[in-house]
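Input set for joint prediction.
Command: fold jointly, output tokens.
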Amino acid sequence: MRPRLQDVADRAGVSMKTVSNVINGYVHVSEAMRAKVLAAIDEVGYEPNLSARNLARGRAGMIALVVPQLDMPYFASLSMHVLEAAEKQGWVVLIQQTRGDAEKERAVLAGRFGQRVDGIVFSPLRVGTDEIRQRRDRTPLVLLGERPVDGVADHVVIDNVAAADLAVSHLLDLGRRRVAMIGGPVGSTGTHRSEGYAAALTRRGIAVDPDLVVPVHSNRGEEGEAAMDAMLARLDTPPDAVFCMTDWVALGVIRSLHLHGLRVPDDVAVVGFDDIPYSTASTPTLTSISPDRAAVAREAVASLAAQQKGEHEPREIEVGFELVVRESTAGGAGLRRPAGR
Amino acid sequence: MRPRLQDVADRAGVSMKTVSNVINGYVHVSEAMRAKVLAAIDEVGYEPNLSARNLARGRAGMIALVVPQLDMPYFASLSMHVLEAAEKQGWVVLIQQTRGDAEKERAVLAGRFGQRVDGIVFSPLRVGTDEIRQRRDRTPLVLLGERPVDGVADHVVIDNVAAADLAVSHLLDLGRRRVAMIGGPVGSTGTHRSEGYAAALTRRGIAVDPDLVVPVHSNRGEEGEAAMDAMLARLDTPPDAVFCMTDWVALGVIRSLHLHGLRVPDDVAVVGFDDIPYSTASTPTLTSISPDRAAVAREAVASLAAQQKGEHEPREIEVGFELVVRESTAGGAGLRRPAGR
DNA sequence: ATGAAAGCGCTAACAA
DNA sequence: TTGTTAGCGCTTTCAT
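tokens >
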């Protein structure tokens, strides 16, 4: 049978309380006592029973991570980091997928997890500020992603305007002038990346050309490909650069360009967003905005911990990002390998 | 405060036991009683406390899923399915990553999770049959992946020999004769995919050419690219087809071929293994062996459930797969789009 | 600084 | 068929 706290106490010749004190790092324990207890723990091979601990502490011991889909590489990578950050707080992570379904997203806000979890890290695709504001569930919540939340809950983000601006400026620095965007539309409220796109162009005195902007309704490669197909069919002269909302979309865009006989980056330079693992395996490798995912995860978990301790002023938490330049903007004929690889 | 079982009982005017019976689907409950209790549950908004339930039941309520890396798309996708299958058994999934580190893999066998979990789904990259046989931890264990396990534990797999055979036969059916393999080596014990490769060639009277086989030491795209570079540097005539151990490796191989001025599939057809989500976004889209991941996950979780109920004859559990044909073997100049997309 | 004992919310003998 | 009650293993007042 598995050793319990009492077994350790018996072995060390002390009470359960003392063992508990040692385990939980209570300060007022003599060094000798601590050593004796630790030895006993080691001898009997004690491991705390988390169900019992959580029951006694009145917490669930787990948090929910709600993402659109785990097999979307950005979220896979993000989840990885959340798992690591949560583990340090003694939390197990219950991953839930919404598959971009508005109903499922609403269920999260409605308390679908009941009080089963100590907190929720939520990356919404559909629900907006109003729905979030009106939620009744009191479970600590932290939001991720580009959608604005107007201070209704903690929100961990990168500065999407600045990031998009940086990506587009990079294209302009390369001498490109007809810079398209897949994934807009420009001007609709809250699309920060579109804002950065427009800002970068405007600063150089280039007007935003609506013909060079095609919105997509999901982040899938297929959508990106179709969008690029549509744009090319419509234009007499193709763009000389494309800024894509996500890397996955960018991969589809590159497919489309390739199938239309356009070379990347020679004819058209392409920048993505997210820096998914595949950006180094694609042909050409993909220039992309790389958000500091580890920081996103860390801040999200820290937010939940703070909320659990009573903190309750919703905060906007900003984390870093960088532009990683690879072949899709820097290569010659797709045959050179830049250092960034 | 969160409603408890007692609150439901009070509301319904019955005892806790009756409520518990209803919740746990005990058979001998009158319809009227059941309805009354369900109504009460609904009225007070009761949700069971899992810590308490698990403590009382003497189980942890969670299983561990140990994979090399969650942001490798095959494992991301697999994890997604495991989450779903486990949820149906009332299990939360604690995902752990080994990053292919032999030490971490051994820690899993040594009981790093203590008795913290009710079972372990383990996808090993390094540890072998012997180490698994010698483990002392009694936690139910089920293994995934190609590595053979000689009946030391439950093992969920596809028939890797048949799958590789199918992939290579497909290449031969296309008229290719110099079929290379990235990820061997042929003949080393237990590499089922290599076996299938050799079998398909032999059946057609083609000898395995050692010059056309290059092993890789990880499944990363970079490795595949380097391996293909090496092969091309060595050969006077390039192969006309390549069978790759994984899709990720295949992406790297395609990069290498492209950078050497070889067209896929015109000059060289490429088949991957795993059918990761990106195989439809790459240029060209990737022909691949697609294991029935949902079945893998389902069987793995079922295995743990069976072991927990006392079953203990290690079983080899086989699940299905299929070959998905896409542009990397079927396209013309990479410009045609086959129906398989 | 350490010990004794009362819960945490649920399940499952055992009774009725 | 339904009720009573003793744990499950841990934390945590409250004493000492």
